[in-house]
Amino acid sequence: MFESKKAVTSSAEKLPIVDTIEVTVTREDIDSVLNNPSHTADDVMRLFLKDFGHLFAQSAGTIQGYTLGQHTRMVLKQYHKYFKQTSFPAGLDNVFFETVLALHDIGKPDANSAGEIDNQYAYHQVYFNQILPQLGFTASQQAIANSLINSDPIREYLYKNRTGPDAAAVSITVKAVEANMSVKDFWFLLKLMWMCDAGSYTVDAGGHAELDRMFEFEPDEGEMNLAPHIQKYFDALEQKLGV
């Protein structure tokens, strides 16, 4: 468990200033579970409940009323249902990716409490920067994880209609540079994370109907694809990205 205190930063953002996060789960624990081919989404959740159960019990800040734990579990279930056999680029693996998925929204409770949900990504980073080193992830892996969770350019492009494919491609390219990855490899990770995250807001994931029309699910075949009207947006973006 850990103790934290909040203070206002010099930039006037109400970010949590965490003195110490002492994570009791070990890298050996994580490797033992996540390298087991038969592990489940619930097994992943149990890894982090002792340290972060108080956060998982709080609101995820969604209109559906999910707790952070409910949302995270559905994200992980979508990954297990459709993408568990993924081969990762750039020397990464399932252990890295599932850890990022399990913690991808970890700062939301603090952001909600501070009334800064739009600034949630900065809160996630505060936690990631303290948790990942203790779990034995390298500086390179930490940079990739931070770049994956420090903004959501796909959401900005699709949901909020704030950017076109050109601006989205620039944003994603910058993130790839921050992660020290090729655009192709970074895009693979970012898209996969978005598929699991957005795909959790569906009946297929065991939740309320919301984003169901964005996807085509074939659970018996283990396939989750974009609906044609969404695929065209991804095609336009991928053309700009050159992937």
How many angstroms does the end-to-end distance come to? 42 Å
Order of helices and strands: EEHHHHHHHHHHEEH
- Assign a percent range to the helix content: 40-55%
Low-pLDDT stretches are: 1-12
Order of strands across the widest beta sheet?
A: 1-2
User: Which percent band covers the strand fraction?
Assistant: 5-15%
Describe what this molecule looks like in 3D:
The strands form two sheets. A two-stranded antiparallel ribbon has the order 1-2. A two-stranded antiparallel ribbon has the order 3-4. The protein has one domain (2-241). The protein is globular and about 45 Å long. The chain contains eleven helices and four strands; from the N terminus they run ββααααααααααββα. Mean pLDDT is 90; it is low at 1-12. It has helices spanning 27-34, 41-56, 68-82, 94-103, 108-113, 120-134, 139-149, 153-158, 165-178, 183-198, 228-241, and strands at residues 2-6, 16-21, 215-218, 223-226. With 243 residues, it is mainly alpha-helical.
Secondary structure: elements and pairs:
Layout: E1 2-6, E2 16-21, H1 27-34, H2 41-56, H3 68-82, H4 94-103, H5 108-113, H6 120-134, H7 139-149, H8 153-158, H9 165-178, H10 183-198, E3 215-218, E4 223-226, H11 228-241
Antiparallel strand pairs: 1-2, 3-4
Helix pairs in contact: 2-3, 3-4, 3-10, 6-7, 9-10, 9-11
